[in-house]
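I am writing to request your help with a piece of structural work I have in hand. I am sending you one protein, given as its amino acid sequence and as whole-number tokens for its backbone shapes. Kindly check, if you would, that the fold set down in the tokens agrees with what the sequence suggests. You will find the record immediately after this paragraph:
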Amino acid sequence: MEQLEITLGIVNGSEIKVIQNEEKLVPIKPICEALGVASNKQIGKIKDDPILGLVETLGVSTGKDGKSYQMQCLPLKYVFGWLFRIDSRNVKEEAKETVIAYQMMCYDLLYDYFAGYADYVETKQQKIEKYLKMAEAARMNFRTAKDRLATIEKGLKEARGVTFEEYKAANGQYDIFESVDYGLETTECKDH
């Protein structure tokens, strides 16, 4: 497979590249130069690291002079963790603000991943429980209203069913319309 170099960006005048062959590799030395930290010390720390030491490898990359050089590299997926561990007090002044901002972003992302998700789940569960209680109260109110409506409709049906003869037989009293207590407020009708 043909090797391809992609420039990720330029930091403090140094090109940060990804070497792409079987996997994406990032040379360590140009990043160290951009940050103003000793590349030989960083490579030593990488080699001593129980995780990074297993994945660190050599790759061929183009130097500032345009020539190809073998350089110590890390797979792209490990570079971000390595950068997070660089002590911001040891980088050159013009890179310090950027390194601290990057590390703060890492802390935020780690929090969001581990604790933020727990906050999300707890908040979501509280909302769900709130709406479940509201739904149950609405169902109860609906049942009560439905029962009351059925009673009212029954009374309406009975009132419509009273004939003139029944009315006369009751001596014109409106109480024949209220043979069942429907729990409604009633107003007396007066003859006009």
